[in-house]
Specification:
- The protein is of the alpha+beta class.
- It folds into 6 domains: about 160 residues, Hypothetical protein af1432, CATH 1.10.3210; about 150 residues, 2-Layer Sandwich (Beta Polymerase, domain 2), CATH 3.30.460; about 80 residues, Beta-grasp domain (Ubiquitin-like (UB roll)); about 80 residues, no CATH class; about 90 residues, no CATH class; about 80 residues, ACT domain (Alpha-Beta Plaits).
- It has 30 helices and 20 strands.
- The protein starts with 9 loop residues before the first helix and ends in a 5-residue tail after the last strand.
- The longest helix is centred in the C-terminal third of the chain and has 32 residues.
- Strands 1, 2, 3, 4, 5 and 6 form a 6-stranded mixed beta sheet that branches. Strands 12-16-14-15-13 form a 5-stranded mixed beta sheet. A 4-stranded antiparallel beta sheet has the order 18-19-17-20, with helices on one face.
- It binds manganese (II) ion.
- Manganese (II) ion binds next to loops.
């Protein structure tokens, strides 16, 4: 397959694969019964054979991937034999000739069902070109999840391994996969209480999204490692003594913050690494019997606070009342001798296991109390507790805490509601969610029936569209050709199908009306010798306080906006505004069809050759710098095709980048800077904080304007209780120019901190 590979020694390769498999077995063996081991071996053999001609991007035989996923599934998530089998086979149906039927024949119903779920899931998650909506993908993901949570867990393991081996992918692929991971998988892992996996997914994504900052933090963490260890040792010493004297069985660990969480802190609080890295945390893990957990954790708490003063505002007790995702721990923050706050987490081995591995571990301790080694998968669901674990997750999804990721909130009703069975006039059964209405039923029958629905006869009696159906109802839909979907329908339908079809239809309708309105507007403007340009459109809808240009056209079509108002507006701006003159100049010959072109109609980037080169006049692309992150030459950037405002250039590290990349990958255009040094100036913001001092402002402005010949666009200083904050907008040529400026400013006495400001409103 890969001709880049040097010589392959098939014998050696076979041995290596077997070695990897043996390693997998070692991490499972103690948990599995004999029959399970046979099943795992069978799955391995089947997968090995099915993937025998395939290689990964890195060149290694494909089978390493399923083996690695299986290993994550067992040792990092804590699942049992059946899940290992599914993990080994997870890519077979999708990528090889094997079918779900084959799986059923060889491994039984459950395995077949899980693999089927995994296959479907990857087709909705991994292929997301133009048409697919992320939200719909979430829904499918959760739908699959409600049938068997193992599908999601194995998928997470699959993603984790892909992230660990992302190096061999192309840069644009890396960015897309990393953004997706950050957007869906890490929050999901978090929601399921898989903290270790969540953290690793975040760190890995971050590594690819912002490689420079990532490397910087990793290096600095390494540099400061000894310093931290020394501090922790000194801090722990008196506690260790007392814990020993009290006869407590424990382990004490210094806890490093993840690279990503450090980066987040640096960004949200606009502080440098040095102010984040030394937020210390230690974890005390107690080894004790389950019945003594509470008293032991409190005993440890009492010992710690004997030595250090706790911060009353930072105390958290998740032992008495665990978090909804199962997390249990006692957190306190105490003042160390050197004047630094230290967070102390106290928990038992079991709680720690739950925190790292999530509910899989939780269940393990809960239901097999005496015999924690038995595998959940192996017993009948009813008695195994696996079912109850599943229920727990379902419940948890049904009542997410206020901080829960909102997508679950959005879809939980549809997903986990009870179902009802409703009959058509001919006696056919339809399954709907329990609060479905007649209109949902109509859409379920056929989209056209839904669109034209005016009411329904339920059990022979006439009811409005919004009537709630019950199990056993027989429903006859009444339609009319004159009927059209209405906005208020969205208020009572519950099924995803009805919702999306109604929305789609309303959108189409609006688009049609807008097109009419635009035509009217163009015609009327022509009569006063004006051409409709994008600037004019934008200025008008903003002036009339509408949200989009489409709203403007619709208002005109529906006559809620009179042309007289538009004329007045144009008159009023005639003398004052510059753009008007610009417009006058353009009247001759400008084609109006250029205006409002949908993004889909723009040429799509086909390969890397389509990179948008900023500053290259030969490229006929319109672009502007995004205000949310104000890129300057030298920044790592990409282009985003917006609906109304052409292409916007964002920094790869822009706060909006992840959202954009994971939702609208197809509208992302690779971009780079033309290699010339004499750019016209770019506006960027810097935030300076320091100690207020006479003459400080003067020193700053001197450095900026005299020493470096930088133009200042605006400057705003604020001072409170001796601390000042300065927001300065400067015109720079690029990143080097800016860094140079920051470096020089750092030498000014009294300045404590200088950071680049993302958002600048011009
Ligand atoms: Mn895979």
């Amino acid at each position: 397959m890969s001709d880049k590979m040097p010589e392959i020694d098939p014998e050696k390769e076979k041995q290596d694969i077997l070695k990897a498999y043996k390693k997998l077995l070692r991490s499972t063996k103690r948990n599995e019964a004999k029959g399970d081991l046979k099943l795992i071996r069978k799955a391995f053999d089947v997968a090995l054979d099915a993937h025998k001609d395939m290689r990964r991007k890195s060149g290694e035989p494909y089978i390493y991937h399923p083996i690695a996923v299986a290993e994550i599934v067992t040792s990092e998530i804590g699942l049992g034999a059946k899940s290992i089998v599914c993990a080994l086979l997870h890519d077979t149906v999708e990528d090889t000739d094997l079918t779900v039927e084959d799986m059923r024949r060889m491994f039984g119903d459950k395995v077949a069902q899980i693999i089927d779920g995994l296959t479907k899931l990857s087709s909705v998650l991994d292929i997301q070109e133009d048409k697919s909506l992320q939200a719909e993908n979430f829904r499918k993901m959760l739908l699959t999840m409600s049938s068997d949570i193992r599908v999601i867990l194995i998928k997470l393991a699959d993603r984790l391994h892909n992230m660990r081996t992302l190096d061999s992918m192309r840069r644009d692929k890396q960015l897309k996969i990393a953004s997706e991971t950050m957007y869906i998988y890490a929050p999901l892992a978090h929601r399921l209480g898989l903290y270790a996996i969540k953290t690793e997914l975040e760190d890995l994504s971050f590594k690819y999204i912002e490689p420079e900052l990532y490397e910087e933090i990793v290096a600095k963490l390494k540099d400061t490692q000894r310093q931290r260890t020394r501090f922790i040792n000194k801090f722990s010493f008196p506690i260790i003594n007392s814990l020993n004297n009290a006869g407590i069985d424990y382990e004490i660990k210094g806890r490093t913050k993840s690279v990503y969480s450090i980066a987040q802190k640096m960004k949200t609080q606009s502080v440098p690494f040095e102010e984040v890295y030394d937020i210390f945390a230690i974890r005390i893990i107690l080894n004790c019997k389950m019945e003594n957990e509470k008293s032991e954790t409190w005993k440890a708490y009492s010992i710690i606070t004997d030595h250090y003063v706790p911060n009353p505002g930072r105390f958290r007790d998740w032992v008495s009342k665990p978090k909804s995702n199962g997390y249990e721990s006692l957190h306190t923050t105490v003042m160390s001798d050197s004047g630094k706050w230290v967070e102390v987490q106290i928990r038992t081995v079991r709680m720690d296991d739950v925190a790292e591995k999530g509910l899989a571990a939780h269940w393990k301790y809960k239901d097999t109390g005496k015999d924690a080694n038995k595998d959940a998968d192996q017993k009948a669901p009813a008695e195994s507790g696996f079912e109850s674990w599943l229920n727990q997750i379902r419940e948890l999804l049904e009542s997410p805490d206020p901080n829960a990721i909102d997508f679950i909130d959005d879809f939980k009703l549809n997903l986990f509601a009870e179902e009802i069975f409703v009959f058509t006039p001919s006696g056919e059964v339809r399954t709907l969610p329990s609060d479905a209405t007649s209109l949902d039923f109509a859409f379920d029958i056929h989209t056209e029936v839904g669109m034209r629905c005016i009411g329904a006869k339920v059990n022979g009696k006439l009811y409005p569209l919004s009537h709630n159906l019950k199990s056993g109802d027989q429903v006859e839909v009444l339609t009319s050709n004159k009927q059209r979907p209405k906005e208020d329908w969205l208020g009572f339908v519950v099924t995803a199908k009805a919702k999306s079809k109604i929305k789609q239809s309303l959108k189409d309708e609006n688009r049609r009306i807008a097109a009419d309105g635009k035509e009217i507007l163009e015609r009327k403007l022509k009569s006063i010798k004006l051409t409709l340009t994008r600037e004019l459109t934008d200025n008008m809808y903003k002036h009339f306080r509408l949200k989009t240009s489409q709203d403007l056209f619709i208002s005109i079509a529906k006559k809620s906006l009179d042309f007289k108002d538009i004329k007045d507006y144009i008159e009023s701006t005639k003398n004052a505004s510059k753009w008007y003159n610009v417009l006058r100049n353009r009247i001759s010959g400008t084609s109006t069809t250029e205006v409002e072109k949908a993004p889909e109609a723009r040429p799509r980037p086909k390969d890397k050759g389509d990179t948008l080169v900023i500053g290259d006049a030969s490229q006929k692309m319109d672009y502007v710098m995004a205000k949310c992150c104000s890129p300057i030459p030298g920044d790592d950037v990409f282009g985003f095709v917006t609906i109304n405002e052409g292409i916007k250039i964002h920094r790869t590290s822009c706060p909006n980048a992840i959202h954009i990349r994971s939702n609208y990958a197809y509208r992302v255009v690779p971009a780079s800077w033309a290699s010339k040094d004499d750019y016209t100036a770019f506006v960027t913001g810097i935030l300076i904080t320091g100690i207020d001092d006479v003459g400080l402002v003067n020193s700053i402005t001197t450095v900026i304007s005299k020493d470096l010949n930088v133009n200042m666009k605006s400057i705003a200083f604020e001072s409170q209780d001796g601390v000042f904050e300065g927001h300065i907008k400067v015109l720079v040529e690029g990143i080097h120019h800016l860094n140079n400026l920051i470096k020089n400013l750092k030498n000014v006495n009294g300045i404590k901190k200088i950071v680049r400001e993302d958002e600048i409103d011009n």
